[in-house]
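Annotated sample (chain length 312).
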Amino acid sequence: MKSEKIGLALGSGAARGWAHLGVLRALDEAGIAVDCVAGTSMGALVGAVYVSGRIDLLEEFALGMNWRQIVSFLDVVLPKSGLIDGKKIEAFFRQQVEETRFEDLLIPFAAVATELRSGSAVILNQGDLIKVVRASISIPGIFTPVLLDGRVLVDGGLVNPVPVTVARSLGATKVIAVDLNHTLLELPAEKAPDNIQKPSADAGEPEASSWARQLRTGLNQRAGSLHPVLSKQIKIWNSDSILPSIFDTLGMTINIMEVRITEMNLKMDPPDLLIRPKLADFMFMDFHRSEEAIEAGYKATMAALDEWEECP
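Output written by the structure step:
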C-alpha cells in the first residue's frame, strides 16, 4: 500500500499557466502518481482538465494557439464589473473536460476563489466544475465576477496564489507546489510592463499586436453605438500613451501582489517540493508562447526532482 499521498498545488499565472503542462509531463515521466490537486486561477483550469483525464488535448490546443484564436476569446463588454464577459472561455472549457461535476472526478480536486465582499478565500470542491474554474480565473477588472451560491467570486490569486494549504486539506501528506510568478519582479525595467513581446505574424494573419490593443479595439467598437459624449470619453481613455495601459497596469499590479502573498504563505506552510519555472519575460496574455512555457515547466520540474531526496 502506498504510504504517502502526493498532492499537487498549481499556482496562478495567466499565460504562464501553460508551464503547468510541462510540470505534469515531467511528473508523469518520473513515475510520480498524483493523488489530489488544488489549483488557483490558471492552475485551477489546467488542474481541472488534468483530473478529468484530458490533459493531452489541452496541451495540443495550447501548442496550436495563435493571436487570432486568443482574440476570439475576448468577448469585450462595456466596463461595469469587468472588461471580458468570459462566456467564450467557459464554452471552450466545457469542450476540454469530460466530467463537468466534482462528484464524477476520479482524482480529488479543489479550486480557490476570492469572495469579493469579504475578501476571504473560498475553497470550491463540489458542484459545477466549469462554473468553479470560471470563478477562480476571474481577474478583477478584467473578467466579470461570478455569482455562485449567493457569493460574488473573483480570482483566487488575490488570497492564495499557490494553494499548498488546500492540497493538504484534500489529504495530501506531501505537497508538490508550482509557483509561476516568483521571477516576475526580476524583469529588467526596460522590458516591463508595456513592452510586450509580440509573435511574428503568420501568413494571412493580421499584424500581431498586444492583448491590450485588442481590448481597446473592442471597446472602441462598442463605443460607436453609444451617446456621442460617452463614446468620445471611452476613445480618449483608450488612446495610446507612453504610460502603461490600464490593462497592463492591472496585470502588473496583481502580479506584484501575488508574488508578495506567495512569499508569506510559503514561509508559513512550505511545500515538500517547490517548482519555480523561469518565466520572468512572460506577460499576462502571452498564451501564444505555450511551447516556451511548457518547456520551462518541464525543465524546472526535472531539476527540482533531481534534488528532491524524498522523491517517492
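Annotation: The two ends are 13 Å apart (CA to CA).
Annotation: The first strand starts at residue 6 and ends at 10.
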